[in-house]
Design brief:
Layout (H helix, E strand, L loop, with lengths): L2 E8 L5 E12 L4 E10 L4 E3 L5 E6 L6 E4 L3 E3 L4 H15 L10 E7 L5 E7 L3 E2 L9 E4 L27 E5 L8 E10 L7 E6 L2 H6 L7 E7 L7 E4 L6 E2 L20 E7 L2 E8 L5 E8 L10 E6 L6 E8 L33 E7 L2 H5 L7 E7 L2 E6 L13 E5 L6 E3 L12 E3 L1 E5 L13 E5 L6 E2 L6 E12 L11 E8 L2
Antiparallel strand pairs: 1-33, 2-32, 3-30, 3-31, 3-33, 4-7, 5-6, 5-23, 8-9, 9-25, 10-22, 11-12, 12-21, 13-18, 13-22, 14-15, 14-21, 15-16, 16-17, 18-19, 19-20, 23-24, 26-29, 26-32, 27-28
Length: 507
C-alpha cells in the first residue's frame, strides 16, 4: 500500500480548482482519498478608515444633509452586524424633529433572508395613547376607558389620602418607543388648584413592571413629573435616584380649562438628533418650548424604552389628553392605525410628522468601495423621491452568511466518491438527498484578529478520513477539479491564492 500527496491551487474568486499536471498520476483500483489541509481567504472583509467611513444622509432638499462617520475597523462575517448596527445608529442619530420628513422616521440596516444587506426607513404617524382598539399597542390600568382619539385620560379612583404612587393609574405602550426621531407627548387638560399630586410622563426599560404594577423610580430612564401647580416641573434621569425640580420654566402652569384647551402646557419626551430631551411646550414666555433635561440614549446596546403616563389623583383633580407617541415602526403591528392630531393650535412650537408628502432620500459616501463592499453598485446607495424607504434598498452583489459560514464543503468534481448528503433546499440547486462528491467538511470559522488575518480559513485534519473513489479499475489522470462551497452549496467569495492538499492511498 502506497500514499501520494497532491497539492492543487487556484486564484479563482469562487474557489473553483481546475489543476493540470504535466505527468500521469496513477489511480489504482478502489483507491481512497482524503483532505489533508485547506487554506483560503474569504473576501467578505471590509476595512473602514479615515478615507472611506463618511456618509451623507439627505431627507428633503440639500439643506437637510447631515454627515456621519462610521466606526473605523475591520469587519468580516464574524462582526459584520457590528458595522450594520453602527450604520443604522449613525443614521438614526442624525434625524431631527425640525425636519418634518424625519419626524417619526426610523432606519433599519440588516441582513435579509437572502443574505443581502438591506436599508429601510419608515416614517410613521404618531400613535394615540388615549385610544383603544383591537390592534392597539397600548394597555391601561385603572384609567377611564377613552372614547376615541385624543379624549380625556383620567384615573377611575384616586388615592385617598393624598399619596404619590406610580402604579395607581397608568397607561403605556407595549411596543418600544422609536429609536429614530419622534416624541412621547401629552397635554394637561385640567389640573385642579387643589391637586397636590398630578402626573408623570416618561420612558422605562421595564415593561414587566408597568404591567404588574411594580414600577419604581429607579426603573424610570427619563420622565417629567408635576406634583403641584405651585411648584416647578421635576425631571428624572437614569443616573438620578429620584426626581429633581427644574428651574428652567416659571412655576405657573398654563391650564386654561374649557372644552378645547388648545393652549395648555404640553409635556413631551423628544428623541431629537440622537438625544432624548425632556421639555414643555407652553404659552408661558411667549409661546416657547423649554428643555428641562436630557437623557443620553445608549446606542451601543439599543435598549427598548416604553412610553408611559401615570396619574396620581382622580378625574376631579387631574386630566390629560392629546397623548401621542412615535413607536418603533419595525415592531408595531402592520395593521396598526396611527393618529395625527392638530389640537395644539395655540402652541406654535408643537410639530407633527409629515407623512403625506414625498421627499428626496439620498445616501452616499465619498469612497467608491464603501457601498460596493456591502453589495451595491456605486458610492450612491440610493437617490429617490418617495414618501419613505419602507421598500428596502437591497445590495444584490454581495452575500453575508451570518450563520452559514461555520461549515465549508470541499467537493471533488471529476471523481465519484462514496459520500452522501441529506441536504435539501427548495430554493437551491445544490439539493442532494443522496450521493455527493464531498471529500470533507470544514467546521471552522474565519480567523479573528488583525486585518491581515481576518477572513482566513486554515484547516488541517488531525486524522485524515479516507473516502473510497469507487474506481473499479486502474486509471491515469492529469487533471483534478474541485471547489469549496458553503454548507448550502452556494459559492464562496475568495481572494488571493487558495490551496487544497490531498492524500491518495492505494488499496
Amino acid at each position: 500500500m502506497s500514499t501520494k500527496l497532491i497539492r492543487i491551487t487556484t486564484e479563482d474568486d469562487s474557489a473553483i480548482f481546475d489543476s493540470q499536471f504535466d505527468e500521469d498520476i496513477v489511480l489504482e483500483e478502489k483507491s481512497q482519498i482524503a483532505l489533508l489541509s485547506a487554506s483560503f481567504k474569504t473576501s467578505d472583509v471590509i476595512v473602514l478608515n479615515g478615507n472611506n467611513n463618511r456618509i451623507d444622509v439627505q431627507v428633503g432638499n440639500a439643506s437637510t444633509i447631515h454627515s456621519a462617520f462610521l466606526t473605523r475597523g475591520t469587519y468580516s462575517v464574524g462582526n459584520i452586524t457590528d458595522l450594520l448596527d453602527d450604520f443604522q445608529n449613525k443614521m438614526n442619530q442624525g434625524s431631527v424633529l425640525s425636519n418634518t420628513k424625519e419626524f417619526g422616521l426610523q432606519y433599519q440596516v440588516s441582513i435579509n433572508k437572502d443574505h443581502k444587506v438591506e436599508f429601510a426607513g419608515i416614517q410613521n404617524q404618531m400613535h394615540s395613547l388615549d385610544s383603544i382598539s383591537s390592534t392597539s399597542e397600548t394597555e391601561y390600568k385603572n384609567i377611564t376607558q377613552p372614547d376615541g382619539e385624543n379624549t380625556i385620560l383620567s384615573c377611575i379612583t384616586g388615592p385617598n389620602p393624598v399619596a404619590i404612587s406610580l402604579n395607581t393609574a397608568r397607561c403605556y405602550a407595549i411596543s418600544p418607543f422609536t429609536k429614530g426621531c419622534g416624541v412621547h407627548r401629552m397635554r394637561i387638560r385640567n389640573m385642579s388648584a387643589n391637586a397636590q399630586n398630578g402626573f408623570v410622563i416618561g420612558l422605562t426599560k421595564n415593561l414587566a413592571a408597568l404591567r404588574n404594577g411594580s414600577l419604581r423610580q429607579t426603573d424610570i430612564e427619563c420622565a417629567i413629573q408635576l406634583t403641584d401647580k405651585s411648584t416647578h416641573y421635576e425631571v428624572k434621569e437614569s443616573s438620578a435616584s429620584s426626581f429633581v425640580p427644574s428651574s428652567k420654566l416659571p412655576n405657573q402652569v398654563v391650564n386654561t380649562g374649557g372644552a378645547a384647551p388648545v393652549g395648555n402646557d404640553a409635556p413631551e419626551i423628544a428623541f431629537d438628533g440622537g438625544v432624548i430631551k425632556m421639555r414643555i411646550h407652553t404659552n408661558e414666555g411667549a409661546d416657547s418650548v423649554f428643555e428641562l433635561g436630557q437623557y443620553v440614549y445608549d446606542y451601543t446596546t439599543n435598549p427598548d424604552l416604553f412610553p408611559f403616563i401615570c396619574l396620581y389623583r382622580n378625574e376631579n383633580e387631574i386630566e390629560v389628553d392629546t397623548c401621542n407617541m412615535n413607536l418603533d415602526p419595525f415592531d408595531v403591528k402592520p395593521n396598526l392605525t396611527f393618529s395625527k392630531t392638530q389640537n395644539h393650535a395655540n402652541l406654535q412650537t408643537v410639530k407633527y410628522p409629515d407623512t403625506g408628502s414625498t421627499a428626496n432620500y439620498k445616501l452616499n459616501t465619498f469612497h467608491d468601495t464603501m457601498f460596493e463592499s456591502l453589495g451595491y453598485s456605486s458610492k450612491v446607495l440610493y437617490d429617490k423621491v418617495v414618501k419613505d424607504l419602507s421598500s428596502p434598498v437591497v445590495g444584490i452583489d454581495r452575500t453575508f452568511y451570518l450563520f452559514g459560514a461555520e461549515n465549508y464543503i470541499v467537493e471533488l468534481l471529476n471523481f465519484p466518491l462514496k459520500s452522501y448528503d441529506s441536504f435539501f433546499d427548495y430554493n437551491s440547486n445544490g439539493s442532494k438527498r443522496g450521493r455527493a462528491n464531498i471529500i470533507a467538511c470544514i467546521p471552522v470559522n474565519e480567523n479573528t484578529g488583525s486585518s491581515s488575518t481576518l477572513g482566513i480559513v486554515q484547516y488541517e485534519a488531525n486524522t485524515p478520513h479516507f473516502i473510497g473513489l469507487d474506481n473499479k479499475e486502474q486509471r491515469l489522470f492529469r487533471n483534478i477539479r474541485a471547489r469549496v462551497v458553503r454548507d448550502d452549496y452556494t459559492p464562496i467569495q475568495s481572494v488571493g491564492l487558495s490551496t487544497l492538499t490531498f492524500l491518495l492511498k492505494n488499496n
